[in-house]
Specification:
- The complex is a heterodimer of chains A (475) and B (177).
- With 475 residues, chain A is mostly helical.
- Helices cover 69% and strands 0% of the residues of chain A.
- Chain A has a domain of 332 residues.
- The longest helix of chain A has 34 residues.
- The radius of gyration of chain A is 24 Å and the shape is globular.
- The two termini of chain A are 28 Å apart.
- Chain B is 49% helix and 17% strand.
- Chain B has five helices and six strands.
- Chain B is of the alpha+beta class and 177 residues long.
- Classes of the chains: A mainly alpha (475), B alpha+beta (177).
- Chains A and B meet through helix 1, helix 6, helix 8 and helix 16 of A and strand 2, helix 2, helix 3 and helix 4 of B.
Amino acid sequence: MSHYEAPIRNPLILGDKSYHDVSNDIAAPIEGKANRMWWIVFSISLVAFLYGVGAIVYTIGTGIGVWGLNNKINWAWDITNFVWWVGIGHAGTLISAVLLLFRQKWRMGINRSAEAMTIFAVFQAGLFPLIHMGRIWNGYWVMPIPNQLGTLWTNFNSPLLWDVFAISTYLSVSLVFWWTGLLPDFAMIRDRATKPFQKKIYGLLSFGWSGRAKDWQRFEEVSLVLAGLATPLVLSVHTIVSFDFATSVIPGWHSTVYPPYFVAGAVFSGFAMVLTLLIVMRKVSNLEDYITRDHIENMSKVILVTCWIVATAYLSEFFVGWYSGSSYEDFTYLSIGAATGPYWWAFYALLICNGVIPQLLWFKKIRRSFIATFLIALVINIGMWFERFDIIVINLSRGHLPSTWTRFEPTFVDIAIFMGTIGFFFVLFLLYARTFPVVAQAEIKSILKSSGSKYKRETETLTELVKDKRDAEIN
Amino acid sequence: MSHKIVRAIYDDDDVLLKAVKEVRDNGNHIEEVFTPFPVHGLDKAMGLAPTKLAITAFIYGLIGLFFSVWMMNYMMIQDWPQNIGGKPSFAYYQNMPAFVPIMFEMTVFFAAHLMVITFYMRSKIWPFQTASNPDPRTTDDKFLMEVTLEGNEDDLTSFLTKTGATEVSIAENHDNH
């Protein structure tokens, strides 16, 4: 039949699975009980989240004066965290949409969790502009709705408003894409549930999915068109985030290379976060047969490519700034002034974490090692946070007027809110890992005969037989 | 109108695909097939018409594009023109470069959401909808074919068993779609 896949490709699903085995494996974390480790990590995340909620309540009650912002550095950790989280939120849609268009079947083991991560990361990102407004109850003013100010409309020339539209479109489209893919998997859980309450909940979540031939035909068409729509969308989101900086006249921000550089950086950090989460998850949820070494290696390769796009942008920013001879460029975040100034540590953290350490991924041994890739991914997560910190804080700390030169010190509230979002992210992800089908099992089943280890071996034996017979005939 | 149907269960997608062709060649009418995952080529084998959802998405996208143009023209140019940063709002085409991002986002927003809503409506899937797959195993690893019962009951069941069905049963079909 049409289940042939080149023998040079390693099987994507190990362990000689049947269709029923796949259902069992994916339902196991939902039907089983959480282990002690889950409860420990969940509790720590919950405490961090609640600490962050307290800090947000304090911020809203008192005003954003409780942050470390000052007259010159009026964006700092808040926008750093915003851009960092939005960037992380890029991997999910890239994996599910771009890799679908390129027919990369290895995405099927990881797309569900990567999309979940995207949605949870964008939640965290959206929080920061909202609380940065100071008067969060006026947050709806960013929407173009008739209001009591004589119908004063929003400014559609502003990149900040483009951000509102880009991120809300991205969040809602990603959510719908994710949920549509979840319907058949929720239906699988629903139909095997034995507890009435569980059956009811998953029945509700599955929207009554029944798996008719016509439904599947529409399902596949919708997935393909959504992938086609989400691909330019995901590129547009970080492009527009970079416009927040690129359309301004701050030295170091006003740079035409920002859109592609930000998009590559977002993919870089997003894949690093996917690696961080999935290397742990495959172990905890017993998904070793679905998220294999090959998946880790493929993601490492994407990281290496995007690393070099980002590194090229760093080098060109540094060179062009220096070559321009303009004194305004002497203290931008990629300049000799930054390397020798008070933020030298942030400058080197950026270059070492994002430029130097990921080069280890050139070695196949390291790309295929779970521990090494996990550690490198963690370093990249830190490095990408520093990238945004450097862009925002270093550039603002050295303005046109040397008398305004200043520094930024975060207060405990800045730190608490950042920790709170990390806690909130992990609370959501841990709850997801216990209640959602974490691998797109319906899609996995559709490639089981071409990429499952047992079927692949059988096909290979068959191909060998045919070849032997043909060789015998020729001779 | 209620009529009798035969339900045949298969446990392999390749066998099912072959059976669908055989059943249709035999002159029987396949009412529905339930599968746990998308079986490629099944819609063609069953003779289902291609879906037009992609075309609707294109139309929805155009609606989104025109809506965004109308909205920004009304708000920025007609209702309350402002001079922002020395860039006055005299005419839409002069300000248009700044409007491109939102024109794009609204196109995607309309196309994606309205297409998915259309899909949900056409396939009758929404919250609180009850599932209609006759056997719970069809979301796990079984493939179920519903064939209209015409003529001799035993002939049809033995024919279906011969096509590879592992279980065959008779049922009443109450909905008339």
